[in-house]
Amino acid sequence: MADLEQLAELLDEAARTAQAVAQISDTAALTPVEAYKVQALSLARRYARGERRIGVKMGLTSRAKMAQVGVDDVTWGRLTDAMRVEDGGKIGRAAYVHPRVEPEIAFLMKAPLAGAVSAMEALAAVEAVAPALEIIDSRYRDFKFDLGDVIADNSSSSGFVIGPPSAPGTDIANLGIVLTVDGRVAETGSSAAILGHPLRALVAAARMVAQAGEELRPGDIVLAGAATAAVPVAPGQRIELQVQTLGTVALSVGD
Amino acid sequence: MDRAKIEEAADRLWTAARSGIPCAPVRDLIGADDVEAAYAVQEINTRRLLGDEERVLSGRKIGLTAKSVQAQLGVDQPDFGMLFDDMEVLDGEEIAWDRCHQPKVEAEVAFVMAAPLSGGHIQMVDLLASIGFVLPAIEIVGSRIAGWDIRLADTIADNASSGLYVLGQTPRRTGDFDPRLCGMVLTKNGEPVSTGAGAACMGSPLNATLWLARTMAKAGQPLGPGDVVLSGALGPMVDAAPGDVFEARINGLGSVRAAFGKI
Fold first, then answer.
1. Domain span at B175
2. Which residues pair with A179 in a beta bridge?
3. B67, B180, B192 ranked by CB distance to A192: nearest
4. Which of A97, A125, A144, B67 is deepest in the core (most CB within 10 A)?
5. Does pLDDT of A89 surpass 70?
6. Binning pLDDT at 50, 70 and 90, where does residue A1 land?
7. Residues of B in contact with A192 (CB under 8 A)
8. Residue B128 falls within a domain, yes or no?
9. CATH of the domain at A82
10. Handedness of CA B62, B66, B70, B75 (dihedral sign)
11. How large is the ipTM?
C-alpha cells in the first residue's frame, strides 16, 4: 500500500502552490477507501493551517459523469472557509492549476444530518436553498484522473460562490440553468441533471459523511453537484449563473 | 437549379418514406449546402402529401435551433419542416415501431397559433399577441437517410427530419411560464437522459418561432390559427429503441409522454 500521508502532502502542496502533479494511478491505483483517507489527511493539513470545514460538495452526480469514470455512486469532498468566494467577487486565475466553473444548487443546513435518511427528513434539516457556482480544479496534469485520484484530490473542489437564499420548500426538481460567460450563453441545463432531483444529492451527502464518521452540521453548506458540463475560465471573464426561481450568482476572473 | 436532380432527390426520399427502407443522402444530387434546392425538394413531397395523399398541414417544426447542432452542420440559421395531421400521436399512446424512421426524441415547447401572422414586418409583440396557448411537446424526429448521414441540404430536403409528435394536454398562456429559464428534463424508462432550458433554443423558443413566422410569411405560407409550432429542442436529442418510454417535463408547462411499441 502506498504511503497515504505522503500522497496527502503531495496533493495539498499541489493545491497550495497551484502546480499540477502526475496521476497517483500512474504508479498504483487507490481504492476508494484509501482515496478518502488521503483526502481526509490532506484536509487535516489545511485545518492545521487554520482553515475550517464549512460544508461538503458532491461529485459525479450525473449519469453521464458516472459512466465517464465507470462508477455507479457519487463522490464527495470537503469545503473549507478559505474556498469561499463572495457573490460577485473575483478569483485570481493564478491561484489555480486549470480552473473550471460548474452551475450547482446549494443547501444551507439548519439541523444535524448524517446516515441513512429519506429526502423528506433531509429537507427538514435544510434552512435555505440557493444557486451556486463551484470552481473545480483538478490538481492532476491535463485534468485527467481515475476514481481514486479524484477522491484523493478532494473531488477537484477548490472554490465556491453562493447566491441569494430561497425557502427550503421551493420546488427545485427541474429548474432551468443558464450559465453565461461575458454575457453569452455557455451552458444550459436543468437541476434535474443532479441525480434526477438535487435533494437526492443531499441524501447521499448524509450517507457518505456518516461513513467517514462525520456529520452535516447546522450552518454547513452542501453543494449538490453540477447541472451542466464544466466551463474552463480565463482572466478577464465574468461568469454568471441564472437559475429559474432561485436567481443569479456571479464571479469574475482576474490574473 | 437542376430541376431533374431536384425531382430525383424528392423521389429518393419519397420511396424511402413509403418503403421504410432508408436511402442514400441526396447531397450527391443537389449539393451539400444548397438551401434553396433543398427546400425545393421538400416542397415537391409536401405537395404530394397535400394533393394525392389528401393530408392536411397541422403546423411547422423548427430544426437546428441549438448552437452545437448549427456548428455541427456549419450553419448559423435554423431550418423548418412541415407537420401533417397524421404525424400527431396522443399523450402516452403506443407508437408502432414501423411508423418510425430511425427515431430520436427531443423535448420542445409547442406554440399553438390563434391568429394569422402575415406581412413583411412581423415583430415579437405581433407573435406574442397571436399565440393562443403553449404546450409541452415531444418531437420524434426521423431520417429517411441511412444512418442519419446528413448535411444541411439532406435534412432540409427530408422535411427537416420530421417524424411524429406528441402534445401535452395542459394549455398555458405565454405569460405563465419562463420561455428562457424554464427547466427541461427528458426521461427514458424513468432515467433522466437529457436536460436543458429554454435558452438552449436560440436563446428562447419565442426567438425561434419569430424566425419561423417571418420566414413563412415571406414564403407566402403564413402561420395561421390552429397551427402548431414545434419550436426546437431544449436539450440534446436521444436515440429511441423499441419498447422505450419517454417523458418530457418542462417547468411551468407540464409533461408529455411517448411510448414506443415493441417489435
1. 56-260
2. A187, A241
3. B192
4. A125
5. yes
6. low
7. 183, 185, 192, 195, 249
8. yes
9. 3.90.850.10
10. positive
11. 0.92
Count of the separate structural domains present in chain B = 1
Flag whether B97 is in a domain.
yes
The overall average pLDDT reported for chain B is 97
H-state helical runs in chain A: 4-17, 32-48, 63-69, 119-124, 147-152, 198-211
Residue B166 amino acid letter: V
Mean pLDDT of B188-207: 97
Q: What angle do CA B240, B244, B249 make, to 5 degrees?
A: 85
Q: Which of A188, A196, A227 sits opposite B200 (nearest CB)?
A: A188
At A45, list the grid cell: 493539513
Tell me if B21 is assigned to some domain. no
Distant-in-sequence, close-in-space partners of B215: CB < 8 Å, separation ≥ 6: B80
What CATH number is associated with residue B124?
3.90.850.10
Residues 6+ apart with CB under 8 A from A168: A107, A123, A126, A127, A128, A129
Domain with A174, as residue range(s), is 2-254
Q: Which residues of B touch A61 (CB under 8 A)?
A: none
Q: What pLDDT, on the 0 to 100 scale, is given for residue A2? A: 67
- Whether B42 is covered by a domain: the verdict is no
Contact B198 A176 (CB under 8 A): yes
* pLDDT band, very low/low/confident/very high, at A72 (cuts 50, 70, 90): confident
Distance of CA A163 to the CA centre of its chain: 15
Task: Provide the domain count of chain A.
Answer: 1
